[in-house]
Amino acid sequence: MTHLLAAIGLPYIPGWDELRPFAADLWLIVTIVAVLITPFFITRSNIACALVALAGVTLAFLSQLLVRNSPHVIGEHFRGLLVMDQFAMLWKLLLLLFVAGVILMWFTTTASNMHEGDGPEFFALLLSATLGMSLMASTSNLLMLVLSVEMASLPSYVLAGFRKTHRIGAEASLKYVLFGAVTSAVMIYGLSFLYGLYGTLQVGAIGHAMAAGAIGVGGNALLAVALLGLIVGIGFKVSAVPFHFWCPDVFEGASIEVTTFLSVASKGAALVLLIRVLTTIAAGLGFAPHAGMSLAALAGVIGVMGAVTCTVGNLGALVQTNIKRLLAYSSIAHAGYMLCAVSLLVRHKATIVGEDGNSIAAQAILLYLAVYLFMNLGAFTVAALIYRQTGSEDITHYAGLSRRSPLAAACMTVFMFSLIGLPPFAGFVAKFNLMWVLGTNGGWWWALVAVIGLNTIFSLYYYVRVVKIMYLTPSDAPALNVNPLGLGLAVACAAALVLLFIGLAPLSRVTTNYGKLYLTSQTQQQPAQSTAMITGERR
């Protein structure tokens, strides 16, 4: 027996140094358990579970703030399954802040209508999806990539159809599941090719193997299929064209707090995962003497996808009268803007990162995500308040809102103008910064700047149409008695957009300092060393 145990080896038990960087994720796990057992102790479980979830997310946020100053945080953990760096830290902070806002929004929208006893199930699913989206920022391993994406996706499918007696919600959930199942299957199929071609699960090692030319006969075609599968899987989560068809239907059918959650959290997590994977592969390819053409082709694919995505999103929004579908197409357009910046991250290694690992493209995307968080949370909050009073999501019911609820109308105006990218709101600075980063790289990236500028003009029509209805369309409808908590949340988001425009420097410094991706030890080796390691792993 002793010899058998010696042959098998001791099980891997991570120590506190391994667990500390992921304290926020551990708090989310603890909170999920706490939410599920809360009904055993408290009668009104819905409100209690919401408070437990909010407390857990707050503790996770605070623990992540403390972790950033801890030693031995940056680097690989759990034998390379997860990686922690400043980029992942800031995404986790933004995600947790946003989820806290979504829970507060739930109190103003669904709390009074949700069937007693559904709260534990709802918040367990919400926190589970949040955990998956948090881990998506910390993986450069193919196995962990699949696990984190599915951990985020499966609860999201259920959340989309959580209104169990709502036919449109059930239909939206079914569409979401079918699209998600197909794209997940394509992604896993592609990743299996990557593993088969290079014999390793580490993305950094795969990049080096590509640079070393460690590929068999017919491997180039298989590699193209593998990368296509990866882009399909992540593109579905981003709602990039042509994988965006699920987004408007799911946004319309799901409850409004779920729609809000998916509009930012799902797209943001997919973007940071795409940045992580493509940057790591590009860094490995950077060692190859003739890698420039390969990286330029990859950057071109991502850039064109971003340009098409923002164009389709804005054109689709022009004819929408349902506020949730309008904001769904708007979220597709904004995902396209950020994809344009992602294309910069797959250029040659010398221009991806500096000696300190800083990337201005990553900084621009993080800044855009931070501002987009407040814009979307605020816009959906106002939409939820109006729906609760009128029972309609059609923008025609916003007529006379400037008289019926002046503060809500003013907040919605701020969000619409900020989503366009007009001053004096933070959306202007975020979009201008992103366009400036693209423009300073010259070449064909000026075409992407032009596409974003043209799409901004397109978006003027449907955003300003909402403002026009609120202020210029007369209505005899009575004044709205909006929820004070929801109105306070909307005012806070609107104030944040104004303040971030006036004093953007602190947020800009934070995103600059945190726009650093840790290149794993495998991406810092020479191709010959990496190839030897891969060969050994195959054996």
Task: Please describe what this structure looks like.
- By secondary structure, this protein is an all-alpha fold.
- The chain has one domain (22-538).
- The chain contains 23 helices and two strands.
- Strands 1-2 form a two-stranded antiparallel sheet.
- Strand 1 and strand 2 form a beta hairpin.
- The protein is globular.
- 56% of the residues are buried.
- The model is unreliable at 287-292, 348-358 and 520-539 (pLDDT under 50).
Largest sheet: 2 strands, antiparallel
Please mark out the parts with pLDDT under 50 across 5 or more consecutive residues, or reply none.
287-292, 348-358, 520-539
Task: Note the gap between the termini.
Answer: 27 Å
Helix content: over 70%
Give the number of domains: 1
Q: How big a fraction of the residues is strand?
A: under 5%
Order of helix and strand elements from N to C terminus? HHHHEEHHHHHHHHHHHHHHHHHHH
Strand order of the largest sheet: 1-2
Radius of gyration based on Cα positions: 23 Å
Tally of helical runs: 23
The total count of strands amounts to 2
Chain-averaged pLDDT: 81
Query: What structural class do helix, strand and pairing data support?
Result: mainly alpha
Shape: globular
Keywords:
disordered C terminus, single chain, 23 helices, globular, mainly alpha, 539 residues, 2 strands, two-stranded antiparallel ribbon
Question: What is this entry, summarized?
Answer:
This protein is mostly helical and 539 residues long. The chain has one domain. Helices cover 73% and strands 1% of the residues.
